[in-house]
Amino acid sequence: MSDNHYVNDKPFDPKSIEVLTPEQEAIYLAPQRQLIWWKFKRHKLAVFSGAFLALMYLMTVFAEFLAPYSVESRNSDYTLAQPHDVNLFHNGEFIGPFVYGYDKELDLEKMQRIYTPNRDRIIKLNFFCSGEPYKFWGLIEADNHLMCADINEPVYLLGSDTLGRDMLSRIIYGARISLTIGLVGIAISFSLGIIIGGLAGYYGGWVDVVAQRMIEVVQSLPTLPLWLTLVAIMPSNWSQVAVYFAITIILGLIDWTGLARAVRSKLLSLREEDYVLAARLMGASPKRIIGLHLVPGFMSHLIASATITIPTMILGETALSFLGLGLRAPTVSWGILLNDAQNIGVVALTPWLIYPVIPVILIILAFNFFGDGLRDAADPYG
Hints:
This protein is an alpha+beta fold and 382 residues long. The chain has 2 domains: 84 residues, no CATH class; 208 residues, MetI-like (MetI-like fold, Orthogonal Bundle), CATH 1.10.3720.10. Helix content is 54%, strand content 14%. The chain has 15 helices and 5 strands. Strands 1-2-3 form a 3-stranded antiparallel sheet, with no helix packed on it. A hairpin with a 4-residue loop joins β2 and β3. α5 packs across α12, α6 packs antiparallel against α9 and α12 packs antiparallel against α15. The longest helix has 37 residues. The two termini are 51 Å apart. The model has no long low-confidence stretch (mean pLDDT 81).
């Protein structure tokens, strides 16, 4: 038998192998969550959109503090007043943020009030000050506001509505309803979509047939007439809180079908993989296999679906409230605020009544950009 061997007896040369740089070593050793974060940070537009969405949702928490006035505070002397212009200098002298008070007169030909800035009436804007009292989330009494003005003369940075209420304050309060309705609705939609789609894709057979027929029935129903029917059956004596949750449930029950079909198709292709068979042989339950092995395999698609579904639900609530079929006054949402802008003549004369559509557009764009970044980052090895 030969004594030959294949061990190299030459001295070891460290330069003969590739030496990883600290950056390369950090990438190779980083967990998946770290890789996702690093890749997401490179998507600058997604990072900016995420920060914007975080600020908007933080605004809903501190709406009472950020809004200059309460949601129902009104001044009948300043109905449909145009937005005040914020100035810093008066006659060449710096005096800080201020606005000019309005002189009012009635135009009998057009039958509308005309507001003219009076340069002799200066209204200074104060920050982190005491103003109109309120109850924080209906629990804690306080009067601290981010911005205050002279209590004897209101300041409308975004104009006032037909009852003399501050549009800026009502837009801030309206975000609390319009933004949270998407989160509650998507919780219902995702639960139904993942459960029904997951069972159909994992088991197949009669379970898949029943699930597919359910999806086809729901998708065949026309959306707008379905909304009209479901909203019409709500009792008129329901509180606005009950109507709010009913709207979220309706939106959730309508929007789960697309996700269910996507989950089903993915699970049909992944359930035959070797790692799924190994999990079955080790005694893992179907619930564990679907939740821990299959669903994370297409997380990027779920993230993309979520970031599309949330703005869809926000638009759904806005459309229902705009048509007078969803939430109703005195509840405030962006759709209810846009209800005052249905008349084209009103919009032509008082364009600030359509300002609530601006945050709706910005939120929709932010969710789409944020979803693009998360979808790409969820596959860090791609």
